[in-house]
Amino acid sequence: MAVIYLRHPKHGTKVAISDLEADNDAQNGWEEYDPNATVDLDDDMPDEPAAPAAAEPEPVEPVNELQPRRRGRRPREIM
Q1: Mean pLDDT by 10-residue block, N- to C-terminus, for the chain (79 residues)?
Q2: C-alpha to C-alpha distance for 37 and 63, rounded to whole angstroms
């Protein structure tokens, strides 16, 4: 049984279990890849530092606009 690793830019990764399935998936944008291949991350790193991140906004306290709920039974109505 064949095990073929496929990658798609939108859908992620998957494993095809036959050549026929892999050929069909290739027609739909899937590309074969080797999961055991090493990736050299130094080549992908830019030479200049990234721009500083924007300041995060201050956290806002949640506001509970609901009235506090009474616990227990409602008082008996007198007629």
Answers
A1: 88 92 93 83 60 74 73 78
A2: 52
Classified as helix, coil or strand, 19 is: helix
Measured from the Cβ of residue 30, the count of other Cβ atoms closer than 10 Å reads: 22
Angle at 39 between CA 38 and CA 40, to 5 degrees: 120
The torsion of the CA quartet 5, 13, 29, 18, rounded to 10 degrees, works out to 40
DSSP 29: T
What does the domain layout of the chain look like in residue ranges?
Answer: 4-36
Residue 9: name the closest of 38, 43, 33, 34 by CA: 33
For 32, the 3-state DSSP assignment is strand
Global confidence as pTM: 0.48
